Amino acid sequence: MRESMRHVLRAEPRWPALLAIVTTGLVYGALPEELSLGPWWLLVAVVSALEVPALVLHQRGFHRWTQVMGFVVSGVMTLFEVVSLAALVRSLPGHRETPVQLLRSAGVLWVSNVLVFAQWYWRLDAGGPHSRDTRGSHTEGAFLFPQMTLEGMRGQWVPRFVDYLFLAFNTSTALSPTDTPVLSRWAKGLVMVQAAVSLAIVALLAGRAVNIM
Fold first, then answer.
1. Global model pTM greater than 0.90
2. Could you tell me which residues come within 8 angstroms of residue 50 by beta carbon, excluding any fewer than 6 positions away?
């Protein structure tokens, strides 16, 4: 009983991840209509319709179903981002977007890229947030965070959403995970996809917009 209460007290709060989901939907709504998948409010409506039952399942202890719903939410956000990026790339030869619109669209997709992949890393690493909370320590996972190698923190430190957000930000900015080595194959694949998307956004879209201004 005492061990169970300690895990509850150490459980990671879900509001940072929820804030990232809401921010992704709101940022996505800033895209021009011709580049977005449906009306500006569609992504917010879809993820809200999925996240509300996921929160109820989490509160009632159905953590496996909560995890499944979380994967669906992340998958939907990824789909919206990929469709919009493809639409923006297709629009380049026709010069249908003004330089300002290109820069704004590139910025929206870059921010979305960071938030979406932060969600994936957070949901997948070491079995997900609930599994990490249950163990109470983080000594193995898909990523080797610096805190996992420090003597004073080894076995006592657990990554939170902000740690995965920092990892995703670095990957999109430097096109590499910088201070956090990637250990598992699935994580290496996701990091490569995120870096490739960021490279396409920054090099192809933002660069083109600056050149034609």
1. no
2. 69, 72, 73, 76
